[in-house]
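INPUT
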Amino acid sequence: MLRILGVIGDKWSILVVGTLRDRTLRFGELHRAVTGISQRMLTLTLRQLERDGLLTRTVHASVPPRVEYTLTELGSTLLTAATALGDWAAAHRNEIENNRRHYDEAHPPRARR
Amino acid sequence: MLRILGVIGDKWSILVVGTLRDRTLRFGELHRAVTGISQRMLTLTLRQLERDGLLTRTVHASVPPRVEYTLTELGSTLLTAATALGDWAAAHRNEIENNRRHYDEAHPPRARR
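OUTPUT
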């Protein structure tokens, strides 16, 4: 179970899978669409998702080669399951940010063990 | 959205929250229940979950002090949302492990760019 949670319990994986919902994208398009991800992290994330069978990587024989990423059937089912969690995150975003602010006020760095 | 996904998109957080479902536990009990987590990672995970308001940390004035962790209402709602994802992971575990095996056979380390 741990190793499977490792797949899906990673924000970049979730964001990349979400970005590929209903569309095929090239590497550069994904890089622009997933705000904040580095090229290296995107490469690693895509390779892991391909290895897990959540997306397919298709190389078209052009010059330069065109490489496209598409969700598999399995990837689409993950997206459905992840929706509840995404909805939760959106609904509780402000509450969590308030909690963090209160915690930081009550636990200044110097007083922490 | 990214920072919130950072909270929940972490396998240790999900496992700790799941372990606290319907019960209060002490640090040592959590450490035994969450297989594979180091003391340091458990400490960091608990602090982050407390900061987010997903659990409360109660220190009882005994010798030695007894420290207990309990999910908050917010933590319980996260658990509900995460259930779909946990069910997905359990249902597709074998499929993903097969995919990984096939990928590794088709992409031996030396042939990889």
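end of record. The domain at 2-81 of chain A is CATH 1.10.10.10 (Arc Repressor Mutant, subunit A).
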